[in-house]
Amino acid sequence: MTGMRAVAEAAVQVLSAQVAAYRDDPAAEMAAMWRTTGEQGWHLLAVPETAGGMGGDLADLAAVVRAVSAAGLSAPLPELHAGLFGMLAAGLDPAAALDGRIGVALPRGAEIAVPWGRHLDAAVLAGTTLPCADLRPAVNLAHEPVDTLAGAAAGTTPDPVVNRWRILHAARLVGAAEGAARRTAAYAATREQFGRPIARFQAVAALVAEAHAQAVLAAAALDAALVAADDDPVTVPAGLATAARAAGVVARCAHQVHGAIGVTRELGLERLTRRLWAWRDLPTEHELEAGIGRAVRAGGEPLAWSAGPEFDVGSSG
Fold first, then answer.
1. Which secondary-structure segment (H or E) carries 149?
2. Cα-flanking dihedrals φ and ψ of residue 281, to 5°?
3. CA dist., res. 107 & res. 189, Å (int)
C-alpha cells in the first residue's frame, strides 16, 4: 500500500502540473491529461507482468484513480485500463492498448459512448474493436470528451469489459466525493459567522455529516464491487449506482455549506463538484438500476440475494 500511495501522489503531482499549464484552455488540458496518462502507463498497474503490465491488482489501480479524482483531476485511467483488459480478454494484440491508444465503448440505448474517443485509435466492445474515426464530438460538464459513435447500434448483453470500467469509474466518483466532503468539513471548521465556526451551527453540521456519510457509503459499495467477479450482473452496477447517487448528494451538501464562494474557480471546489455531476451521468443510476432489474428478472430473484462477495460474519454464540 505504501508503494501505491507513492504512485498515487506522483500521479497527482504530474497531472496537477498539466492543469497549471493549460488553466485557461480546457481542450488543451484534456489532451495533455490523456497524453500524460498514456505516457506514464498508470493504467498498466492492474495488468500482469507477462502481458506487459506492472503486476498489481484492480484495487491498486482503483486507489490511484481515487487519489487523482480526490484532487479534482481528470485522467482516462478507467478507459485505458478497460480497453487493455478487453484486448487481452479477446486474445487481441495489446500493443496499441499498452500505449494508451485503445479505450472502451459503452452502450447507452441507441448509441455508444466513447469517453476520450477523439484521442483514441479504437474502443473495445463485446470482444471487438470499433474504430474511432467517425465520432460525434461532445464534452461533459467537466470539459472531458465523451464522444459517441455515429450510427452505432448498441447491444444490451452484459460485458465484463464494461463492468471493469464501471468499477474504476466508481472509484473515480468515490475519490471526488471524498475530496469534496473533506473540503466541506475543513471550510465549515474555519469559516466563522457570529463569532464561531459555522460547523457549530446544527444545520451546517448536518450537511457536513451527510456529505461524509454519503462518501463512506460510496466507498463501501466500491469495496464490494472490487471483490466481485467481472461478469457480476448485480454487485458491480449496484456499486456504481450507489456511488453515482452519493455523488449528487455530496455535491449538493458541499455547495450549500460553501455558499456563493463555492462556485468560484479560485476556491477550487467546482473542479470536484463539476466532475461529480458529470461522472454520475455516465451512466446514470437509473440506467444502471434498470440493467440490474433486467438481470434479476432473467436470473430469478435468488440472483439478487446471492450476488456479490460472501462475508464471514462469525457466530453469535
1. strand 146-149
2. -95, 5
3. 43
At residue 205, the pLDDT reads 98
Cross-strand bridge partners of residue 192: 197
In a domain, 312, yes or no: no
Neighbours of 253 (CB within 10 A): 24
Domain co-membership, 133 together with 181:
no
Q: For the chain, how big is the Rg over CA atoms in Å?
A: 20
Q: What are the grid coordinates assigned to 234, written together?
A: 448485480
Please tell me the total number of residues recorded for the chain in this structure.
Answer: 317
Give pLDDT tens digits for 16-43. Answer: 999 999 988 999 999 999 999 999 999 9
Tell me which residue range forms the domain holding 187.
160-306
Separation CA 33–CA 29 (nearest Å): 6
Domain boundary among 123, 149, 175: 149
Percent of the chain with pLDDT over 70: 93
Tell me the C-alpha distance between 251 and 230, whole Å. Answer: 29
Residue 230 belongs to a domain = yes
Of 159, 164, 156, 167, residue with least CA distance to 108: 156
Over 50: is that where the pLDDT of 317 sits? no
For residue 199, the domain's CATH number is 1.20.140.10
Encoded amino acid at 31, one letter = A
Chain centroid to CA 214: 16
Task: Please tell me whether the overall predicted TM-score, pTM, comes out greater than 0.90 for this model.
Answer: yes
